[in-house]
UniProtKB/TrEMBL annotation:
Residues 50-186 form the AAA+ ATPase domain. This is AAA family ATPase. In the C-terminal section; belongs to the peptidase M41 family. The lineage of its organism: Bacteria, Bacillati, Bacillota, Bacilli, Bacillales. It comes from Sporosarcina soli. Keywords: Hydrolase, Membrane, Metal-binding, Metalloprotease, Protease, Transmembrane, Transmembrane helix, Zinc. It comes from the Bacteria.
Length: 269
């Protein structure tokens, strides 16, 4: 298998404005954090240290990956994206060497963001993951995060749905300086996300009139589920040879999403 885990990945054209439902306080903190990173000299004058590592945690599909991409774009960084699973279940020594290569490559292309999704696969509590190999890979990650001035210009962002599983050593300040909880959106947040995903789609008048109700009636839906509502509705309209998404398309898509999450719940162990 080729080591794609350590290559720069193209960044989609995402800004913080494309992410709905984030609490205002969190947006403010993110803006502040990014301004510190963008102006390290001023931060040093003010006696503030630029963060080295950020953890984004929360339920699946809430926009953690989007957020990492938007932050990378905002600071003009090269984006190195991979998943914790890319460093596990490998031959002896490969996980640790992949971690090393990832950081080495990023150091050659600063400013850089290293984003590791599902970091729990890589940084689970030592007792929980067991196994010497996993231990070595995690130790290598900690060594790389402790790179000192070698890591100037590198921002490490990790995402997880299971913060409780993460090793305390990984979460230590200096490695992870800020943790942001990315929650499921509330009604106002869902309304924002609906607007983002409805933009650019042709909607029939009855759909436009029902968007507030849609936000109210989709409690528990993630951003990813709201996005897929519009994709499913759009595909159904196209299939039926219609230009506009109408109410029946949207109702169909809602039923699909609810059924999908019910069968997921039923299949959960
Ligand atoms: P996971 O934990 O499963 O990796 P995630 O939190 O990283 O999920 P994303 O991959 O960022 O979620 O979201 C998937 C897609 O869902 C996005 O590309 C976007 O289309 C949509 N989406 C999710 N959250 C939001 C949001 N807050 N605002 C707008 N769109 C969103």
């Amino acid at each position: 298998m080729k080591n794609s885990a350590s290559k720069a990945t193209p960044l989609p054209d995402i800004t913080l404005r494309d992410i709905g439902g984030l609490p205002d306080e969190m947006k403010e903190e993110i803006h502040q954090t990014l301004s510190i990173i963008k102006d390290p000299k001023r931060s040093t004058q003010l006696g503030i240290e630029a963060p080295k590592g950020i953890l984004l945690y929360g339920p699946p599909g809430t926009g953690k990956t989007l957020l990492a991409q938007a932050m990378a774009r905002e600071i003009g960084a090269t984006f190195f994206s991979s998943s914790g699973a890319a460093f596990t279940e490998l031959f002896v020594g490969v996980g640790a060497s992949r971690v090393r290569t990832l950081f080495q490559n990023a150091r050659k292309q600063t400013p850089a963001v290293i984003f590791i999704d599902e970091v729990d696969a890589l940084a689970a509590k030592r007792k929980a993951h067991g196994g010497e190999e996993a231990e070595k890979t995690l130790t290598e990650l900690l060594v790389q995060l402790d790179g000192g001035s070698d890591n100037d210009g590198i921002l490490f962002i990790a995402a997880t749905n299971r913060k409780d599983m993460l090793d305390d050593a990984f979460l230590r300040p200096g490695r992870i300086d800020y943790s942001f909880q990315v929650p499921l959106p509330d009604t106002t947040g869902r309304r924002e996300i609906i607007d983002i995903h409805a933009k650019g789609k042709l909607l029939a008048a009855d759909v436009v009139a029902s968007l507030d109700t849609l936000a109210e009636s989709t409690s528990g839906f993630s951003g990813a589920e709201l996005s897929s509502l519009f994709e499913t509705a759009s595909r159904r309209a196209i299939r039926d040879g219609r230009q506009e998404i109408d109410k029946s398309d949207l109702d169909f898509a809602i039923d699909r999403t609810i059924l999908g999450s019910t069968s997921r719940t039923m299949n959960d162990p």
